Amino acid sequence: MAQASEQKWNEKGARRGTARLPRALNAKVLQMQNNVTPRSFGSANGLPWIKAATHRAIMMLAADIGGPVDFSPERRFPDTQHAVLLEGANLLIVGTRTGPNIGLNDVSAVARPYGMDLLLARFSGPVAKYDIYRCKDDQWFTGYQRAWFEDRFWFCPPDDADQPFILAHRRGLQFSSHAPFPDARRFEAGLSLAGQTSTQWQEAA
């Protein structure tokens, strides 16, 4: 009986990629997999260099949100080169082709002295993901997708994350504990619409 139970547990663990571990250790591994572990961009001063296509992509992202845009914020705010600033929203937008959780501490260290919120767009996969930094709380919200709903772009958290929905507009970031979509069908439609508007510049990035 015990052998059959252990075999069943190992089959379940195999689907998660954690087979043949003791139960306590298995739980610890799963917890570690879910933890955010920021890694550095490896840039000593300011934001790292990005290619021209990635810079064009974040400029288009700023245009989607709306409001006056400073395309060379480093002239007033040292170390913000390679980013764009939505002035009315006090939102610094940064682009990267690195994977999840890389560079969070680096970019927040650039935005924090100026009291700026920050939107980090990641173009490392087939679907762009977004990390959002709220300066006043010194807090990151990671792994977001964009969705279009009622003429606005919303940033939506991962399904398994207890994080707010975030609206980025020309006056700043707005956080909501409730989904702006009335049902799952409208949510999927919003993701699809946002994907259609960004496909061209996302692939170029």
Q: Could you please describe the fold and organization of this structure?
A:
β8 (165-169) and β9 (172-176) form a beta hairpin. The radius of gyration is 20 Å and the shape is globular. Residues 1-38 have low confidence and may be disordered. It is of the alpha+beta class. Helices cover 34% and strands 24% of the residues. It has helices spanning 2-16, 23-34, 52-65, 104-111, 184-204; strands spanning 69-70, 84-86, 91-96, 117-122, 129-134, 139-149, 152-156, 165-169, 172-176.
List the helices and strands in order: HHHEEEHEEEEEEH
Could you tell me how far the N terminus lies from the C terminus, measured between alpha carbons in angstroms? 56 Å
How would you classify the quaternary structure?
single chain
The order of strands across the largest sheet is 1-2-3-4-5-6-7-8-9
Overall geometry comes to globular
Estimated share of beta-strand residues: 15-25%
User: What's the total number of strands?
Assistant: 9
Helix/strand/pairing category: alpha+beta
Radius of gyration: 20 Å
The mean pLDDT is 75
Count of helical stretches: 5
Main sheet specs: 9 strands, mixed
Helix content: 25-40%
Low-confidence stretches: 1-38
